[in-house]
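Tokens in:
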């Protein structure tokens, strides 16, 4: 544990580096409120903080910058739960007050909202459709042997999938298959239905089984919405870092696994190498679960440089996750 003076100096260095992205010198820190010691004393203490792994000097003639360990100390010991300012709070409130219609559209727009509020990349992992109540099922013929199965869920999600039926089918068979599917699924969840019971008509049953298999597969997929990748890339100077960040954000499986792992570990902030995704080692991730009636249905988060504004990021993610959970609970 650092003593009071080293804690104050480390906090000042972190805050200054977050604000300027420039190595921080002892003379500048000595003038900060709450430090109140000479530049020489600050310089000595910064040297000790470097030896202990909280700071690093990128160039011999430059000041110092925080390490992942320094940021972790700052987040754990010096970061108070932030509050969104009045304008941002109003923006979040207005957004969710007007958020109606398809769930997918709302989640996509929520990712854009997070980026607007923080300037970082955002990720929203929505609830899987297979846990939501089915409101209606439709089968729409596309050709003589293909159809689209469309399922509307009670939470506003809509899933559709093109199915190959393998042989010519009449509109009458499709209509009877849609009615049979509706009878088996309406008011239930996809996850709770093991199979569609036989109708007594082989042609209808083939359509129902094929359609149900397709919709069961797609409704079990994660719904992931990313925003602001270009914004976070612009915060890095090194071309290789930018390339790594953009390439990794394009891989949904990695992003979902990253967010899920942080939440499962009971963390709200993962800094640099802590999250274990090497191409994103220059980034920190701030996440919060989306909870509805005590059930964890999704997550929201932001990804930015390790020098991100942690108090603002934590406050933004907490408010948006709470409001999104409340909105989903109203569905």
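Residues out:
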């Amino acid at each position: 544990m650092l003593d009071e003076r080293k804690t104050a100096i480390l906090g000042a260095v972190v805050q200054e580096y977050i604000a300027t992205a420039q190595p921080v010198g002892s003379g500048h820190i000595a003038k900060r409120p709450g430090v109140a010691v000479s530049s020489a004393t600050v310089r000595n203490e910064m040297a000790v903080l470097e030896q202990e792994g909280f700071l690093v000097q990128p160039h011999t003639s430059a000041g110092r910058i925080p390490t992942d360990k320094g940021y972790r100390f700052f987040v754990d010991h010096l970061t108070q739960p932030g509050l969104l300012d009045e304008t941002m709070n109003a923006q979040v409130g207005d957004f969710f007050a007007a958020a109606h219609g398809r769930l997918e559209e709302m989640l996509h727009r929520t990712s854009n909202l997070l980026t607007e509020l923080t300037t970082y990349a955002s990720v929203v992992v929505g609830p899987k459709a297979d846990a939501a109540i089915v409101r209606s099922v439709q089968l729409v013929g596309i050709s003589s042997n293909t159809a689209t199965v469309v399922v509307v869920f009670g939470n506003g999600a809509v899933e559709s999938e093109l199915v190959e039926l393998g042989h010519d089918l009449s509109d009458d068979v499709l209509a009877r298959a849609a009615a049979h599917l509706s009878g088996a699924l309406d008011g239930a969840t996809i996850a709770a239905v093991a199979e569609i019971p036989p109708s007594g008509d082989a042609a209808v049953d083939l359509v129902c089984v094929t359609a149900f298999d397709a919709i069961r597969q797609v409704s079990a997929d994660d719904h992931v919405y990313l925003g602001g990748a270009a914004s976070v890339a612009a915060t890095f100077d090194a071309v290789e870092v930018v390339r790594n960040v953009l390439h990794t954000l394009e891989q949904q499986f990695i992003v979902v696994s990253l967010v899920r792992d942080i939440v499962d570990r009971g963390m709200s902030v993962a800094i640099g190498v802590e999250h274990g995704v090497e191409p994103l080692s220059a980034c920190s991730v701030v996440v919060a679960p989306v909870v509805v009636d005590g059930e964890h249905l999704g997550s929201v988060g932001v990804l930015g440089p390790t020098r991100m504004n942690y108090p603002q990021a934590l406050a933004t993610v907490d408010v948006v996750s709470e409001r999104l959970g409340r909105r989903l609970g109203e569905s």
